[in-house]
Amino acid sequence: MQRLAVRMTVGAVFFAVAMFAIPTAFFSSLLLWNNASYAFQARVDALSQILNSTPSFVFRPEILLNSWQSDPNRPFAYIHLVNPSGKEYTVGEPLPFPRLSVSRTLNNGTELVAQRDVSEVLGWIIISNISVLAGAAFLLLISYLLAKRAARTISAPLVFLAAQAQQIGAGQLRGKMAKSGIEEIDLVQEELARSAERMAERIAAERQFSRDVSHQIRTPLTALSLRLEEIEYLNEDSEIDQQVKACIGQTERLAEVIDVLLKQVSKRGGGTAQSLSVLEVFSPLQEEWEDAFKRANRQLIFQDDSTTNVLATPAALSQILATLLENSLNYGGGTTRVLAQNVSDAEAGFLISVSDEGSGIPDEIAEKIFEKGFSGRGSTGLGLGIARALVTSDGGSLTLTQRRPPTFLVTLPAARNTELNETDNGALVISGRRRTRLH
Questions:
Q1: Which string of DSSP letters, residue by residue, matches 88-100?
Q2: pTM for the full predicted model
Q3: pLDDT (0 to 100) of residue 367
Q4: What is the location of CATH 3.30.565.10 in the chain?
Q5: Which CATH class is domain 272-438?
Q6: Residue 45 backbone dihedrals phi, psi, to 5 degrees
Q7: Cα(407)–Cα(34) distance, rounded to whole angstroms?
Q8: 243-274 core/surface letters (b: 16 or more CB in 10 A; e: else)
Q9: Are 428 and 385 in contact (CB under 8 A)?
Q10: In sequence order, which residues have a C-beta less than 8 Å from that of residue 271 and are 6 or more positions away?
Q11: Are β-strands 336-342 and 350-355 bridged in parallel, bridged antiparallel, or unpaired?
Q12: How confident is the model at residue 64, as a pLDDT?
C-alpha cells in the first residue's frame, strides 16, 4: 500500500515536473543563445556603419579593426574584410566550433565577416540546464518524502484495521480502535466494531443455548441410562440382555458426543483424543448395526488392516462411523464395507473408509453434503456436518473420495509406539458375529 501510494504520487509529480522542466530548459537555453547572437549582430552592424561612414581617403581598416578587436566590450575574435578590388584585411584567426559568425556587405561592396567565441555562452546554457534539473530533482525528493509520510499516515490505520478484522475472524473480539482522522477508514472501523459486538452477542447466545440444551438432554439421558441398567439387572433373557447393553452403550456414547460438541462451541479446545484400537470402535458398531443391515437384506463388513492404534476420541469416532453407516443403510445399496488401514504420512497415519455398492451421490449435491442444514433427500442435513466437525476436533478430516459408488474417508493421526502384536499378522475381518484374521 505504501509503495503503491508513493509510486503513484512521485509518478504524478515527475510527469508535472517534466512537463515544466523540459520547456524551461529549452527556452532558457534558446534565450541565452539568442541574446548572445543578437548582441554580436548589433556589434557587427555598428562596425559596418562606421566603415560605411568613413571617407575612403582616410580609411585605415587595419587600425580600426585592431581597435575593435582589442576592445573588451566588443567580443570580436576574428574580423575579415575584402574590398571590391580584392584586397583583404584580417585580424585574428578563424575560430573553430563553437562560434558565432556574422557577415555584412558594405555600401562600397566590401565584404565583412566577423566571428566570436561562444564557449562562455554555452557554459551559461549548461549552468542554466543544471539549475533546472537540480530544481526538478529537489521537487521530486520533496514529493517523495511528502508522499512517503502521507502513505504512512494512510496505511498505518489500514494495518491496524486489517489486524482488527483478523482478530474478529479468529474470535478475539477487542475494543474499538482509536480514530485515524480519515473518514472512510473510520467508517469501516466503526462497522467492524459493530460487527464484532454482534458476533460477540451471537457467540454468547450460542454458548448459552448449547449449555441449556446440554443440561436438558443430560437429565433424560441419565434417567434413561439408569432405567436401562435396572432392566439389565432384573432381566434374565440373554437376548434381551444383549440389546439392553447395546442401548446402554448408545446412551453413553451420546453423552460423550454432547460433551465434545459442547467443548467445541465453548471454544475450550478440541476433542479428548486418546490411543485406542480401532476394534474397540468396530465391535460395538457391528453389534449395533448388524441386525438393521440384515433386515434390509444387506451385508455389513468391518475389516482392520491397521498395524497401529488410532489417536481419536472414542465416542466421537463411533458417532462419525455411525453417521456414515446410517447414510449407507438409508441411501446406499449392496455390501457396506468399513476398512481401517495405515499410511506412511506421519501427519495422517490412519485411514478409515466407508463404502457401499449403491448408485452413489449425484454430482449436483456432492459438493454440499457436508454443509450443516443441507439435505438432498429430506433429512435434517446435520449428520455429515457434525461428523466432520467431530473428526476435525481430533485433528483429522472427513472427505468424499468417490461419488459412484460412494466412498467416504476418515483421516486421523496414528498413535505412536502402539504397534500390534507381531504374531497377529494379517487383516481382521468382522462379518456378522464372526471375527476372522486373514493371513
A1: EEEEE----SSEE
A2: 0.46
A3: 84
A4: 272-438
A5: alpha beta
A6: -65, -40
A7: 91
A8: bbeebbbbbbbbbbbbbbbbbbbeeeeebbbe
A9: no
A10: 260, 263, 312, 313, 316, 390, 393, 394
A11: antiparallel
A12: 63
Task: Give the residue among 115, 102, 113, 106 at the shortest CA–CA distance from 75.
Answer: 115
Report which secondary-structure segment, H or E, holds 326. helix 314-331
CB atoms within 10 A of CB 133: 12
Structural fold of domain 173-269: Helix Hairpins (1.10.287)
Cα separation, 278 vs 353, whole angstroms: 12
Q: Where, residue-wise, is CATH 3.30.450.250 in the chain?
A: 2-122
CA dist 241 and 174 (Å) reads: 56
Separation between Cα atoms, residue 393 and residue 264, nearest integer Å: 8
Instruction: Report the alpha-carbon distance of residue 293 to residue 356 in Å, rounded.
Output: 12
Q: Can you tell me which residue has the cell 562562455?
A: 120
Cα gap 254→319, rounded to integer Å: 8
Cβ–Cβ contacts within 10 Å for residue 378, how many?
6
At residue 314, the pLDDT reads 87
3-class secondary structure, 418: coil
- For 2-122, CATH gives 3.30.450.250
Point out the residues of the chain with pLDDT beneath 50: 57-58, 268-270, 421-425, 433-434, 436-439
* pLDDT reported for residue 242: 75
Q: Return the pLDDT at 60.
A: 62
C-alpha neighbours within 13 Å on the C-beta side of residue 277: 12
- In angstroms, what CA-CA distances link 336 with 297, 329, 332, 353, 411? 11, 8, 8, 10, 19
Kindly provide the b/e burial profile for residues 205-223, where b requires at least 16 CB atoms within 10 angstroms of the residue's own CB: eeeeebeeebeeeeeebee
Query: From the CB of residue 156, how many other CB atoms can be counted at a distance below 10 Å?
Result: 14
